[in-house]
Amino acid sequence: MSVSGRYLSRLFLQRLALIVFGFALMALLFDALNNADTIEKRYGDGFLVVPRYMLFRLPEMAALITPFSTLLAALLTLLSLAQQNEVLAFKAAGMSFYRILLLMMPATALVAGIHLVVADQVTPWAKKRLARFELEKPTDDQTSQRDQAKGVWLRDPTYIVNVASVQREGRYLSGVALIRRDRSANVVERIVAGGARYQRNGQWKLESVITQTINPLGPTTTRSDDGVWQTPLRPGDFFNLAALSTQFTARELLVLRTGTTVGTRPGYTYDTWLQRRLALPGVVFVMLLLAAPVAQARVRMSSLGARLAAGVSLGFLFFITDGVSQALGESGAVLPLVAAWAPPLIFASVAGSILLRIEGL
């Protein structure tokens, strides 16, 4: 049993490592080529900019393709065993196909654990590290006015705040507009700055400041090179508003879900992201279960390529269903728990039922 387990695990892990490496490298190359202009604008045009960008993007790419790569590796492993009659040899030795899958479970559990760590810890860390290399590019007043509708909106005790873009993990804000209203909700002051840089003393230093004051005698406009904005808002607050799900750890999503920190999305959206993060190990096991019935199906005149294509199609169907379910959970149409766990449970049940029927024939 130990020899068979090591043999199956070695075949599975070797194929998985090659597939993940190949797909991740290809995805990184396409990403770098497609976003070459954006990389130059955001991170500069030095020799090390693109390699550094690819290095910090690697964990996200690896986490993205690991489930599909697991499906391919499991298909190739099980189909090769069936093609070379090794499955018959295992069964002749008194080992059922279920036992073969059971022997592959430790390797699958190892992949699931690594996948969770990379997606939940390494990827957010890498994206935050990459954000530190962003160039600080303030915007002019006209650009700030155009971007107000699609920027980040929030408020502090004094101002309604709009930020065109968040850079360097929230430490630098581009295109800042501060709007102050009186008790009657009338606008009495508007401050527009090309950028705002967070200082160690807890204050924000404004750059290229235009202050417009509205009073009964008529509006007045003053300009200055810099200014000070005192607010309890911190870089992390702005980063939370602009970040995507891959930039948060499970602990951060839990805090955002409870509403104890600043966030622009509803609580059920963060809850959906959290539940989906927790379901990642289960998705890896589902990929193994999806490969099992395809490898064992006794279809007359079916070639290895056709069975591989059938397994890949089944995987694509799962990812489409999972994506639709996540979108429904983010919009609040279904419960976050259902949105995250329903696709893995449904596909695992279907694959298990098909495998039981095939093995029972």
Q: What does this entry look like structurally?
A:
This protein is α+β, with helices and mostly antiparallel strands and 361 residues long. The protein has 2 domains: 2-133 and 264-360, no CATH class; 141-238, lipopolysaccharide transport protein A fold, CATH 2.60.450. 62% of the residues lie in helices and 15% in strands. It has 12 helices and 6 strands. It has a 6-stranded antiparallel sheet with strand order 1-2-3-4-5-6. β4 (187-198) and β5 (204-213) form a beta hairpin. α9 (267-278) runs antiparallel to α11, α9 (267-278) runs parallel beside α12 (336-360) and α11 packs antiparallel against α12 (336-360). The protein is elongated and about 95 Å long. This is LptF/LptG family permease. The chain crosses the membrane at residues 12-30, 61-79, 100-118, 278-297, 304-321, 333-356. It is found in: Cell membrane. Keywords: Cell membrane, Membrane, Transmembrane, Transmembrane helix. Pfam families: LptF_LptG (PF03739).
